[in-house]
Amino acid sequence: MTIVGHFINGEARSDSERTQDVYNPSTGEVSKQVALASKETVEEAIAAAQAAFPAWRNTPVGKRAAVMFRFKALLEQNADKICQLIGDEHGKICHDAAGELQRGIENVEYACGVGELLKGEHSKNAGPQIDSWSEFQPLGVVTGITPFNFPAMVPLWMYPMAIACGNTFVLKPSERDPSSTLFIASLLKEAGLPDGVMNVVNGDKVAVDTLLEDKRVQAVSFVGSTHIAEYIYTTATANGKRCQALGGAKNHAIVMPDADLDNAVNQLLGAAFGSSGERCMALSVAVAVGDATADALITKMSEGMKALKAGEASDKSNDFGPVITRAHQQKVVGYIDSAEKDGATIAVDGREVSVSGYEDGFFVGATLIDNVTTDMVSYKEEIFGPVLQVIRVDTMEEAMALINEHEYGNGTCIFTRDGEAARYFSDNIQVGMVGINVPLPVPVSYQSFGGWKRSLFGDLYAYGPDAVKFYTRRKTITQRWPSSGVREGVNFSFPS
Amino acid sequence: MTIVGHFINGEARSDSERTQDVYNPSTGEVSKQVALASKETVEEAIAAAQAAFPAWRNTPVGKRAAVMFRFKALLEQNADKICQLIGDEHGKICHDAAGELQRGIENVEYACGVGELLKGEHSKNAGPQIDSWSEFQPLGVVTGITPFNFPAMVPLWMYPMAIACGNTFVLKPSERDPSSTLFIASLLKEAGLPDGVMNVVNGDKVAVDTLLEDKRVQAVSFVGSTHIAEYIYTTATANGKRCQALGGAKNHAIVMPDADLDNAVNQLLGAAFGSSGERCMALSVAVAVGDATADALITKMSEGMKALKAGEASDKSNDFGPVITRAHQQKVVGYIDSAEKDGATIAVDGREVSVSGYEDGFFVGATLIDNVTTDMVSYKEEIFGPVLQVIRVDTMEEAMALINEHEYGNGTCIFTRDGEAARYFSDNIQVGMVGINVPLPVPVSYQSFGGWKRSLFGDLYAYGPDAVKFYTRRKTITQRWPSSGVREGVNFSFPS
Amino acid sequence: MTIVGHFINGEARSDSERTQDVYNPSTGEVSKQVALASKETVEEAIAAAQAAFPAWRNTPVGKRAAVMFRFKALLEQNADKICQLIGDEHGKICHDAAGELQRGIENVEYACGVGELLKGEHSKNAGPQIDSWSEFQPLGVVTGITPFNFPAMVPLWMYPMAIACGNTFVLKPSERDPSSTLFIASLLKEAGLPDGVMNVVNGDKVAVDTLLEDKRVQAVSFVGSTHIAEYIYTTATANGKRCQALGGAKNHAIVMPDADLDNAVNQLLGAAFGSSGERCMALSVAVAVGDATADALITKMSEGMKALKAGEASDKSNDFGPVITRAHQQKVVGYIDSAEKDGATIAVDGREVSVSGYEDGFFVGATLIDNVTTDMVSYKEEIFGPVLQVIRVDTMEEAMALINEHEYGNGTCIFTRDGEAARYFSDNIQVGMVGINVPLPVPVSYQSFGGWKRSLFGDLYAYGPDAVKFYTRRKTITQRWPSSGVREGVNFSFPS
Amino acid sequence: MTIVGHFINGEARSDSERTQDVYNPSTGEVSKQVALASKETVEEAIAAAQAAFPAWRNTPVGKRAAVMFRFKALLEQNADKICQLIGDEHGKICHDAAGELQRGIENVEYACGVGELLKGEHSKNAGPQIDSWSEFQPLGVVTGITPFNFPAMVPLWMYPMAIACGNTFVLKPSERDPSSTLFIASLLKEAGLPDGVMNVVNGDKVAVDTLLEDKRVQAVSFVGSTHIAEYIYTTATANGKRCQALGGAKNHAIVMPDADLDNAVNQLLGAAFGSSGERCMALSVAVAVGDATADALITKMSEGMKALKAGEASDKSNDFGPVITRAHQQKVVGYIDSAEKDGATIAVDGREVSVSGYEDGFFVGATLIDNVTTDMVSYKEEIFGPVLQVIRVDTMEEAMALINEHEYGNGTCIFTRDGEAARYFSDNIQVGMVGINVPLPVPVSYQSFGGWKRSLFGDLYAYGPDAVKFYTRRKTITQRWPSSGVREGVNFSFPS
């Protein structure tokens, strides 16, 4: 059986000792093994990155950018293969994988502009004949630890910019769907990146802790659940590193009485059930203002959901695929059960879905739950499945209050056509990424991605301008030249 | 005896229960008591800040800036009083206190430009008919914990910008010289700042820990010793907060053979002994390249040091004052003793200094130590006294290597007139603030202040542009308006 | 009779040969004479500016900013005097003059942040061991030519930033109300500006042409009518100078059926009649969408206009004052006559206004004209008086089309609460400054001011970030240091 | 014979009426004809651009950038063909053409980052509940008029950014070597650019004047000689357009006594004779400080020049090719004659060069002239040939004075290793692009290109950040939403 290994110092590598099963979630079968790196293997990757740093940091900016331009081209040329690898191990439908990859490529494109982005601040005559300027120098070895749900995109949020800024990188991707991540990283070598600048280690807590504790690692970027994000942030910072750790979410959409409801429903279908809801930006709660709004929303959503089709990744006609594991499938179903038990109404029930030919796949059908309340476990926790819950409130203030009281603050949206309501909402909602009639307000690559409250630990966000700051360290140089010796001829007799 | 209390919700306040002595270090006498806030008092300050936040964040940017313009004017009008308060409790000479205050005022001036600095990033047509923009919203309640050595300046690095950005603030200044800090903060009320936006609590670890643990506090700025900085950073981040913690320093100057030595000596005198060396940017090590350079440096420094005069704060003819406490005086002397014992040469000895009329003051004379080596304790640790140590090396590479190997990386300087040497040095030295013939390369207020390695924990620096990022949280709004209803007349019958 | 002269090289100056009457427009009487500079006098001012340039450009940025901080304080201290001077010669009511001055002061405040604004772009490792950076250096002698309607504010758009950037300045203000401008400029000397950096020459075409043709003048900023703006732009550029020339306006407000009409009417009253409509941002045309909207607008405006009171400048209870001259009064009345003759309906007629005690003042009462069409002369030309014309259209598209077809494109506004209409309007309207429910969308001091089409000639706008670009010239320095001589000891024997 | 035509609305086009010879300057033979567009043809191109504008400006930024990414790839794939076309018509050696193309591609790469570059400035709470932001909207139809010496690069300075910003373009390239320019532009169609967005018209003054006078053309970018640049600037601005017009140059290098002379000579060989000196950044004057420096420079240069080889474009072993025309060849020789007549010393004489097999080519050999003085015609005017003139001065001040007195201020360089001399030079020299030991200080693509004095007319430079400003127009939107109707339920009964 294939063993998915590591990529260290420009070469494929595999530890033989510990491995873990990789499933095809559409069939429910084990398809590969992934190597789990030992502490020594991780240290080897760090050492490779450390060794590659001095030459890479001195490589002119334009040459670093040139690698990114070639990397972008290679990603596009290999898109089909990448999407297939994602589909095989994650289960998301190929069009969805293509969307993920496209978003990832956009981060590479942004890194192509590193010449502009790295510009320092130059102050002439900061004092008498004194100039002062800040350079943004690379940190050295930096690391990323990434989740299963976007095996292509989330790593691409991190290392292209880190590397373009002159750092070297060790990536620890999810062990559940490691193949696309590993393959993508290997394309960097083809793009001309010197060996050792980019390294991938697959693994578990052993690998993570090694990265968090090693003195040579300067910075840690993490995306995953809040529980782990908090651990990463606390541990990395206790080891003196800078850290940005992105955690979980519970994203609400407010549906106002004046919303264009057909539009809202169309948007919600994709935002709630796309990728089986396994997105940190998935819209999992709709807050309907007024019972009339709620009734209409339930009716139209139920109608729209009839057309949704769960199925296998390579079939483009499918709308979404299985969830990642058997255990997760059961967990999602458990949340639906609990909501029902807690008194919510299961308007559309996806618990009994069966996909012909893939009866053992980890599928959950699209589910709509009405009359959810904030005290239910299914509301408080992140389900990460194809489940949309509807809460009914009387006023927009009430809707905003419950969003602001939730522990997460990743994404949110309002459906309205009223300028005042939109502005009040976006100003006062305690959430990092806000949509006005946009249900998945993922920032473009030249803005930055990050939530508020317990959805992000740290002060700089993922990708975009913040990533440039995160992956560089300011150095401020203040310069005054002494008396005009050479210029005025004092040293005229210098040998020339 | 005067008790220096707190400033909470616009009013002077004092806990009666716990106090601590405040000394006049020039006389060695206790001059005041400072209140040590209880947990409850600190929580009251936090509550006041929390309550003041909603209105303050909604105050237009221009009105927030207007407070800063008035604050600047008040600081200038009250400069003499502030400098006297600093001199009485810290001991620095009035001209030095005036310099400190001026640097602090420059941070207020930078905060006056908050309209420019807070500009968000607006992306038109990020998608089809979709606009997206990032706002930099204030965090809420933020805190600063500041050291004794710059009681006016370091707090002014923090709260003017924090407040200008729309946050509310709780400051915990040094309990050793609290009066100037407290007085300055009270001027903000006179400048028109609403009550509760700025609060000061004096105290000790009780106050610090309360601030670090309280859920309402969003961010922590700290300046002090590395040991405490590390504690602050670890604790604040473990509590989910963003944190910037600036620690200790050991700042080296390389003196190259081609340096303008008279100029270098003049610069070093001030940089090593000013403020008794109690500056995190003090130059405490001179690295002479070549014995000829070293010999000439020792000769000229010894000569120059003859004119230096330690003394009481209010006498402008003095060059520097006492150190902060009796214990610190003994610690500094102890470092000189240990250097001597370890084999270094005491070229100029300040241990026996006595200031007429101030025999009980905590004075240490300017001290020059030659033949220091990197294994000596006096080299490894931060002395924070008027002591300049000289290390002799053969090459610039050797000089740079020892700087790069030191645990601190705050400031450094090279004396040369060679463009190539200067560029190589500034590029490769692992230090955050670099001077080319500038011994105290403190960045101007529109750059940012921060060291590398164990001199700073976090990713954003103090004051300048980084402070704007530190005291705000990005919110990205993505907006698409639905069909053209009103515009095309669908809703033409709306009541107007 | 007082002769208003010039301010050259730090001293008040007066040509004796040619003068012109200055009126008090409230009384209709000549109150002063203004000197009209000869070519020689203007050249003297240019020479003073040229001589002051080298030292001023080398003055550290912080010291240049310090002058602006003091200037701001002096403007505030002298506000009453300034407003009185404006009132006496321009006629605007004191509260309006105070508003003008405040806007002007905000431009001084923005110039206080010049340290931030002048930052150059620094590119490390642009090539192998090659750094490159751009500095924004001052131009030298620059000039401003300003209109009567904002004698304080418009000059303050120009010279504070020009001077803060290191340039020296010659201002040619309006000869109709020169006193406040001259007085304000003289405060710069009190603020510590070196003589010669700022100079004012009063005058007519002789002065203007001298400034446009003199080789030493590097740049020209102009605000006035389009006819003159075009002349200035063509002449200045033909003389090889950079130039920004702001011209006339015809600012339309679209009133949508869903607008909050009471709010709209309140806003329109001030925007149309404030300062007698003598503002380039005055709203002079309301475009009502639908007859119902138009009828309601006419009714409510007519009602609201009953309370408006024209009168003398120093009486705060007045809403607006006289127009600037007898000739202009007659011209405004002529436009109303022509509209009437062309078939428009005079809904409120201000032609016969008489102000008790000021019967000879140049007053025109607030006038509302309904049923205006785009072929009328009163629509095509800028009236610059207290006259609001109403055009009735059936659709928003129609409203936008007529705005886009007008030769001017300075300001505009839409009244609506619909997000989609607002976005469509602001995206597609061919106007530089756009209000959404804001009738006078004058940009804040940290944005820039400029119209489109024939309202502005040039590519950089007035004040704000554009002004920094306009008043500086990019210099890009590319630096590579040759072999490591000094660093590696080749020149070790340099005398030290 | 091939007729090189136009590219209008996505199609190759040719006027039949007027044509002009295109030469192969290596052979001296006519190789093609170029069509000279009539006024009607140019207007057709403008009309096509105008028609394409509305859809293109509304195309999301990312899609516009995607065209640039594909265009870059196509330029790389077609590099050999492009370089051959350049060689055939311009005569520059293929490695030099490749360098030109690479520089051009870097401008396309910069345009790929347009998402970042177009970000507007967003000000939240500029007033009470008032937000304000500036968008940078495209202008409409813009034009570029480009010279023969960089037929690939200079057009690529202009239209990629103009188009990426949302404008449509009409290019009028040099009629002397039109083929590469035309071919490159046609690749944009292959890259997916909609028809009409990019158009090329070949022609002469008829075409130029049509572009300058047509009301639909919003902006003009020009690169060429100063005489024409001035005409373009004056005419375009007199027609109310924004314009940037780059003219001629006379670039000096100062050689200081402490310079690394071997390095300086190596640099000067390429900088003076590369591309036969037909570069606006060519170094045509060396100013030697001190006779010892001058003597050594002449000796080493003469030695180095022995190895230089003029020849035909496709032979990589050649160093430079012919000049552009027979007339220009004679003009260059005439300048050498005149210098000789005026008393200069012809140290190396290239007048009699003959290239075997290309005896009728327009070749001039590398020429070194010593003892040049500032009163000689050969010094005052731009030669634009492979001629380096040496001026001897006694001091650096003298060297700088003569540079500052020259009418041009494009590029310059100093050779020194002294930090103070370098800083003094770069600060005070009146030249836009300054090299420290870099003889051709052409800014990287993310800085901007422009000279001072009569080397550039206008205020915004070519390519880089300035180009973004030049090709966009600021629109500032100020937004306040009225009362909270929808939000607070007033309109609750809206049909949903």
Automatic annotation (TrEMBL), chains A, B, C, D:
The keyword Magnesium does not apply. Its EC number is 1.2.1.27. Transmembrane segments: none annotated. It is an enzyme of class 1 (oxidoreductase). It comes from the Bacteria. One of its GO terms (biological process) is L-valine catabolic process. The keyword Iron does not apply. SUPFAM superfamilies: ALDH-like (SSF53720). Keywords: NAD, Oxidoreductase. One of its GO terms (molecular function) is methylmalonate-semialdehyde dehydrogenase (acylating, NAD) activity. NCBIfam families: MMSDH. This is methylmalonate-semialdehyde dehydrogenase (CoA acylating). The gene is mmsA.
